[in-house]
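User: Hey, quick favor. My workstation is busy. Could you predict this chain's structure for me?
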Amino acid sequence: MRTRSTLAFGVILVLGLIFSLSFGPAQAEDKYVKLGSIEPLTGSLAAMGVSQQNAIDMAVKDINDAGGPLGKQVMLVRQDSQTKPAAGASAAHKLIGVSGVPAIIGACSSGVSIAISEVTIPNKTVQIATGSTSPRITYLDDDGFVSRTAPPDIYCGGAMAMWALNQGLESASTFVVDNPYGLGLSNAFADAFSKAGGEILHQVSILKNKSSYRTELRKAFGDDPDVVMNAAYAKDDIVALKQWYELGYPNVWFEAPEGRTVGMIDALGDIYNGFPVIDMHTPTTEYRKQFAENYENTYDRRVGVWTRHAYDATMAIALAIQKAGPDYLDATRVEKAEMIRDNLRAVTNPPGEVVSYPDAFERGKELLEAGEEINYEGISGPVDFTETGDVVNDFMIWRVKDGEFVEEQKIAASDILDFLHEHGIMKEYEERWGGE
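Assistant: No problem, here it is.
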């Protein structure tokens, strides 16, 4: 009797498993639109990564509360890049091969995003990087599958060079993290600064997670530069700046966007006062204020450097799916990715009625269903993708005063482009990277 009961139970178990495999996933898939995210939830960029993941989650909630793309709820599958290229690539393999997502939001760190792209491109998967600025990304042979909501280093480097030269600074060194982000920004700044008449003394790269950067600081401040451009990650930057202060070197720092990372002022206090910091400039609007308030109330933390860009990447993908129409739901994973790619600019670039936070998805969906064109205006600014998948932002010079970041000088995107073209930098970068 025990044998028969065991056999009967086994048959029921197998039949149940067959039933669940045959109907369960299909029914679940019918309810959801899958997307993936890869952000550094641990590692040296965890502070930024958590902020970006929060923004992605916030966007997904806003999208789902508005009925979701094509009437389906977004199912977000999250992965942690650990701020490591290998971990990012492994996460991409899981999202594509196991979860079957057609699009991935992330990552932060150019080296990680490039490693992810080496998985997404051959697997025909959309990737929108949220905090990756290396010039290499612009010229990836990606068939249009890779975009980013963060502006490339060539624009940030150009803006920093413009500012430094306008201050009458004639010599410069750089102090940057030793990865594609840091080296890319160091070269972008050095190229622009030197071609416009400045002198580059030293380009110093630092390893992450060291307890001492005194040797690297001595190199960066050798020969008395007028300015030292700093593009270290916040965790290491805090260590280095405390040691710089102890060594008594002059305050000629110029901080890259990571310098406006949440926690820098709290960790450094008066040491950080007076520092100039460059970051993207987003005009203040009521809806951007509302986003910041909602974010801070929800997560009990300030909006970080790339937080807005992560929200915008998520919203752009959802609107592109809505634009693709009902055929999207019956498409293969690759066909879905191609539909997102092919509709991305149609919902983010002019022309079209502007839709923005907080009802960007609800209003955008309504207009698209009516056959109208839309133009998503992002929290980070206009999300107008170029042919190479880049966006171009205005920049702002901030100054740390009394424990706050205070706006000092706007540098318009059009002026940056004019400067780069005038000195032949755009052409040089296309020749340097475009042939890879």
